[in-house]
Amino acid sequence: xxxxxxxxKLLRFKRIFTTNxxxxxxxxxxxxxxxxxxxxxxxxxxxxxENGFTTYPCFGCGQGQHKVNFML
Length: 72
Description:
two-stranded antiparallel ribbon
């Protein structure tokens, strides 16, 4: 699987949480704690450009660069 495929799946996963987390918490109140809200918030912020990034040269051709966003 290439990077675009992985990124697409990660974005889809985050979209599911963004859309359904409030509904899930209202149906399952035991997850309505600061701990779970904090963990979900960190997951949703993970890999964003504003958290910083680094670039690596393409090891295949040596010409292009790959940007990797930092996690929290």
